[in-house]
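Narrative progress, year one. The postdoctoral researcher (J.K.) led the effort to move from monomer predictions toward full complexes, under supervision of the PI. The following entry was the first complex the group processed end to end, covering 282 residues in total.
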Amino acid sequence: MQQPEHLKNAGLKSTVPRLKVLSLFESGQERHMSAEDVYKLLLASGDDVGLATVYRVLTQFEQAGLLVRHYFEGGKSVFELNQGKHHDHIVCLQCGRVEEFYDTAIEARQEKVASDRGFSIRDHALHIYADCTKKQCPHKP
Amino acid sequence: MQQPEHLKNAGLKSTVPRLKVLSLFESGQERHMSAEDVYKLLLASGDDVGLATVYRVLTQFEQAGLLVRHYFEGGKSVFELNQGKHHDHIVCLQCGRVEEFYDTAIEARQEKVASDRGFSIRDHALHIYADCTKKQCPHKP
DNA sequence: ATGCAAATGATAATCGTTCTCATTTGCGAT
DNA sequence: ATCGCAAATGAGAACGATTATCATTTGCAT
């Protein structure tokens, strides 16, 4: 059980809801989850935390650097474990599957584009919306 | 007055609110506007259209290809005239100013990344969030 | 000019998210 | 162990952006 350490290091006291949310992400079962997703999965596994708490905890975890928040199209934001390595996303419009990628050339060009224009990058989001070309989408929404 | 043609071509009958919204975008005064922005600007210039109508018209224009919608962080979407040429955006986190850019290398790499993974791109959004490095931000939010 | 489908505007409803506040809990000091 | 209190929680209200409802108005083909 290493979660309490994570929370301590993040300056958050280890409470039941926080441990549950964190271990849900660490279970690896679902990598990208919205607040609603987290809430429903916890309810489904018998743990009942309030929806408000889920929102609060997700925001705290984001601020603490434990999670990363993404704003995909459609208005709702999704979270994933912060594993240090930045990456961008391809979202399948058919099945909603999210695949991650990292491209050095793209990253470098972004820096150039920004500095050429007198900006210093704080963050960026590259979302490619696409269709799987495989016969059938392997995952469901 | 060429707007009625635009609307006709888009299969939309030319009504007063639609003409007003379109000419607001074509005035070039503000390039990126949210529904609320459009609504307030129209009110300010004495034209009173309903907020619901603004939302409807913006969505129709987007579907008709007259406008492009962007989902920036913060939940609200902004629209701009569709001038055919795709481009991405740098958003200043201090003042909210939006600058456009297009980078061939980035576009090409995206295609490669997607096809390498068996996806065919339908759309993409690259948003760089940054700070102006200039002494003071030139535009306000 | 006339009629009617389509469009509008006011308002209610919805959705994701945040706020409020009374109750509960983690945890350092005893 | 247990006490006390600040911090965290949960239920529900409140919120902002957007969409749906529905009675009234308007564009436009006849």
